[in-house]
Every structure is written in structure tokens, then in C-alpha cells.
Amino acid sequence: MTGTNAPDSGAGLLVDKVAFLMGAGRGIGAAAARLFAREGATVVLAARTEAELAGVVGEIRDAGGTADYVLADLTQGGSIQAAVEGVIRRHHRLDVALNNGGVSIPHTPMVNTTEQNFDLVSTVNYRGLFLSMTAEIRAIRATAGSGAIVNVSSVGSLRGAPGLGPYAAAKRAVNSLTETAAAEYGPEGIRVNAIAPGTTMTGVIRQWAEDEPGAVDRLNALTPLRRAAEPAEIAEAAAWLLSDRASFVTGVCLPVDGGLRA
Q: What angle do CA 254, 43, 201 make, to 5 degrees?
């Protein structure tokens, strides 16, 4: 039996939502921005590179969606806060947010990782996400009152990841922050989840495939679905978690990995 408050199954997943997407200039973030707009959201994209953001916003508007962008640097707390405040100035509320921004560092055994690369991945993928998520929670509480956040983790965070030590550790920290935020703000009606993509054909992975021929093929051979994902497939999972159709889901880290960690 369908409850009287259940969402209309014929409506877009994110109709009437104001959605903020950190790290939306390319890859999973850009694919999510396009999808969220198609699903009815008003989207605000954020990243460092204005040309990339403008290009994605233009595509969304050309397709009939509602989109704009703000600049944000995940290494700068003030920049993150200003980006979230920019959403509120433009649209007067924040309902949902996707935190996709991050960096990768060269694959190497931990003893070969430079201090500079360790600091970079920690600052952007851990500290930057923490500052983004907390700014978004404050904005949701002050405006919409309730809402949802999805953080982008990695399947590499779910167990030991040779060659990806600092990156995987930062993503595991994302999982912990996600669970804690879900526990702290669930009583207020704010859901917080994470997704853990497996091999996904972003620009970073395509470059890795060029640098190490056969690397993606090796991962695909370990993946039950025997292929990599396209960014749009990862975005679909995020859209559902942010939607009211996932209204009783919070505090999870959902693998979207083709069964790689099965």
C-alpha cells in the first residue's frame, strides 16, 4: 500500500529541490549536475575552474534545466563557506548537496608517498569535504530545515588498498564523517550518506589507463560486471539517495562498483 505522503513515482527524483554540487566541473560531479537538473532540481555547481563550470551550466540550460555556478577552492575554508552562502543568496534555501570534489595522487607504495602529496590529498579529500559538509548542514538547518547530503567516497576505502594508501585513508575518513553526521543530524531530518564508486571512466581514470596500459582491464577482470562505470551511472545512485524516495536511508556508504568488493 502506498502512503499518502509517498512521492509521485512519475515525478522527477529531485523536483523542487535546490541542489548544491561541490566538484561539478567534470566527471561524476558534472554528470550528477546534468542528471539532477533533468530530475527537476535547481542546481548550483561549484569547483575551481570557471570555464568547466560555465560549460556544464550552459549544457544544462540548453537542455531546459535551471543551473548556475559559484567558484570554490576546497583548500580554502573561506572559499567553501562563501560558495554555500552564494547558493542561499541566489535561491534562499538549500535542500540537498553532493560533495564530489577531490584530488588523486600517483599510485605508489606508502613509503614512496611524498609529504606534499599526503598533505594535498588530506587537505582536499578529507578537510575540504568536512568543511563542505558542515557548511551545507548549517545552511540546510537555517533554510529548508531538513534535507540530504551525499559524500563521494571510494571503493578503495572499504579495505586495504595497495598503492592508494593516503587516498584510501582519506576516503575512509569520509565514511566515518558520513556516519557521524547521520547520527548527529538525523533527529533534525537531515540524512547523510556516501557512495563508494568502483572503476569509473572519469578523466583521472582515462589518464591512468594511458599511463599504465592494462590497468583498467585488470580491474574489470576483478569486477563481476566485467566493465567500468560511466560517471552518469554513479550519479544515478547519488540522485536516489538525495531524493525523498530514499527517505529512510541514512548513514550508509553504498558501493557502486559493479560488484568489485562482493
A: 45
Residue given cell 568536512 in the structure block: 130
Stretch 201-215: mean pLDDT: 77
3-state secondary structure of 256: strand
Mean pLDDT across the stretch 206-217?
A: 77
Q: Is residue 69 annotated as a catalytic residue, yes or no?
A: no
* Within a domain: 141: yes
Residue 133 placed within a domain: yes
- Whole-number Å distance between alpha carbons of 228 and 28: 13
Residues 6+ apart with CB under 8 A from 143: 88, 92, 93, 94
What is the sign of the dihedral through the CA atoms of 51, 57, 61 and 62? positive
Q: How big, in percent rounded to 5, are the helix, strand and coil portions of the chain? A: 50, 15, 35
Residue 211, C-alpha cell as written in the block: 599511463
The band of 255, judged by pLDDT with boundaries at 50, 70 and 90, is: very high
* Cβ-contact 182, 193 below 8 angstroms: yes
Residue 221 maps to a domain? no
Active-site entry in 69, 126, 167, 185: 167
Q: 10 Å Cβ neighbour count for 15?
A: 13
Predicted TM-score of the model (pTM):
0.92
Give me the residues paired with residue 187 across strands.
none
Count of domains for the chain: 1
- 25 by DSSP, 3-state: which? coil
Look at residue 103 in the predicted model and tell me its pLDDT. 86
CATH at 185: 3.40.50.720
The confidence score (pLDDT) of residue 6 equals: 40
- Domain region containing 57: 18-198+228-256
Distances (CA, A) of 16 to 36, 65, 74, 124: 11, 12, 27, 30
